[in-house]
C-alpha cells in the first residue's frame, strides 16, 4: 500500500510540474521579458482547445481544459506540430 501511495504522490507532482511549466511558457508571450522558447506552440495549443465544461463543476473543468492544452503543447514539442 505504501508503494501505491508513493506512486500516486510522485505522479501528482509530475503532473502539476508539467502543467505549471506549460502555463509559464504560455503566459511568457505577454511578459515584459519576451516569449520563452516554445511560446508559439503554447499559444497554438491554447487556441486549439475550446472551452467545453463537461462536468459543470468549474474547478474540475478548468483543470481538464488546461490539462488538454498542456498535453497538446507537449505533443507539439515532441513532434514539432500541433
Question: Can you describe what's shown?
Answer:
- The chain is mainly alpha-helical and 82 residues long.
- It has one domain (2-79).
- The chain is 71% helix and 0% strand.
- Helix 1 (2-27) crosses helix 2 and helix 1 (2-27) crosses helix 3 (58-79).
- The model has no long low-confidence stretch (mean pLDDT 91).
Task: Based on the model shown, name its key terms.
82 residues; 0% strand; 71% helix; 3 helices; single chain; mainly alpha
Give the gist of this structure.
The chain has 82 residues and is mainly α. The chain has helices at 2-27, 39-48, 58-79.
Percent helix range: over 70%
| SSE class | mainly alpha
Return the string of H and E elements.
HHH
Number of discrete domains? 1
- In percent, how much strand structure appears in the residues? under 5%
Largest sheet: none
How many individual helices? 3
Net shape: globular
Termini gap: 39 Å
Arithmetic mean pLDDT: 91
The tally of beta strands, per DSSP, is 0
Low-confidence stretches: none
